[in-house]
């Protein structure tokens, strides 16, 4: 399928690929971030500040959550959170099936 595309990089197409493969950017050096739910005031400021290329923050149920596989650790959201409740998540665990299904529904077709 790449035989006629020598000039076209077959590099991962970023976020869409991460969502499709449910894997984290493998060259990201920083750990992802996580939101401490008990401290979060669900203002959605972080959601709006996460760069489109990552789009790692979602409203899921009553919570605002960061999907570690989509979070580069950049950390734009940390700088914007009014209550400083976004922390490093060195021990992140893979996102569950039901959350991925939600993401595919809400982010399908997004860049
Ligand atoms: S650290 Fe960056 S990529 Fe991760 S959720 Fe925050 S703004 Fe998005
Ligand atoms: S900016 Fe902070 S307080 Fe607001 S939704 Fe995000 S994590 Fe919660």
From TrEMBL:
Alphabetized Gene3D superfamilies for the sequence: 3.30.70.20
Compositional bias segments (type: Low complexity): 1-13
InterPro entries: 4Fe4S_Fe-S-bd, 4Fe4S_Fe_S_CS
Biased composition range(s): Basic and acidic residues: 18-31
Name of one Pfam family that matches: Fer4_21
Keyword Metal-binding: yes
Domain 4Fe-4S ferredoxin-type: 31-60, 62-91
Key words, A-Z: Iron, Iron-sulfur, Metal-binding
Stated name of the protein: 4Fe-4S ferredoxin
Annotated spans, Disordered: 1-31
């Amino acid at each position: 399928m790449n035989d006629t595309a020598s000039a076209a990089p077959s590099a991962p197409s970023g976020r869409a690929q991460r969502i499709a493969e449910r894997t984290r950017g493998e060259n990201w050096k920083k750990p992802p971030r996580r939101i401490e739910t008990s401290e979060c005031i669900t203002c959605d400021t972080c959601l709006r500040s996460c760069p489109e290329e990552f789009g790692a923050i979602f409203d899921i149920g009553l919570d605002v959550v960061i999907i570690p596989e989509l979070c580069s650790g950049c950390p734009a959201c940390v700088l914007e959170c009014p209550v400083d409740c976004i922390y490093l998540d060195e021990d992140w665990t893979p996102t569950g099936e039901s959350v991925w299904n939600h993401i595919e529904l809400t982010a399908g077709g997004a860049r």
